[in-house]
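Re: the request from the purification team.
They wanted to know what the chain is likely to look like in 3D before they choose a buffer screen. I agreed to run a prediction and write the result into the notebook, where they can find it.
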Amino acid sequence: MAEDVGGGEEGGGEAAESTGGPGSKVETHVAPAGVPAKFFDVTNGNIDHENWGKSTKELEGKLRTSKADMKSALTEEINTERLSKRPETVDGYKLEVPKGVELPEGQEWTFNEKDPMLGFWREFVHENGGDQEMFDKGLSAYMNSALSQAPDYQSEVDSLGENGLDRCNAVNMWAKANLTEDTYSALEAFAVSAKGIEALEEIMIKSGEPAFSPSDATGQIDSDTLLELQAKQADPRYWDVNKRDPRFVREVDQGFERLYGS
């Protein structure tokens, strides 16, 4: 029998001879460098390419499967961690002014639940596993953009003249007394400029409301007591839709504002 002098799994040594018996020599072969010994025939020096190729493909398949399993497990772990911080439903995100958003002095921000952009953002953040922090980032960007385009409220009031604030208050009181809550809310965004106030004043006049005059801001309502105001509320001109007097309603409402503040 031939003696293998290559020693080891891979070849790379030199050819050697061994004696098979008296008067005979049998040549043996050593596998070339890089060729696994199990795919090399030492008796004839042939390489078993077919089985070597099959073995390599099987190994590559196992490696791909192993990598895919690891990737799947890692992705699942990441998704579990990510989704653990989001609310159960799209309505679970809090609607409040995010930290870092500075509103102009004296102004408040009211969110419109029916705003389609707000609905879109809720669904987008929820579908992507976002938490409250991610939701707030979108709100901040939206609010800062809107505030940057909003007019300077004080400048708009000043442009209405020395009674600008009283004119704004008069429009506000009329809107509260004559409009539905939804319509009033829609007009809030409109009545932030001098042009908006003037447009609403025109609507008031065409609906039968007297034009604003400076005396409206310093009328007899200042001396009204709580009992007098309550008595006026009992007047049909205040509560009866058929006899309602917008100017009378405004005087009563302004009286309460002067007593208790707006």
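For the purification team: DSSP finds ten helices and two strands in the chain.
Please add any questions underneath this entry.
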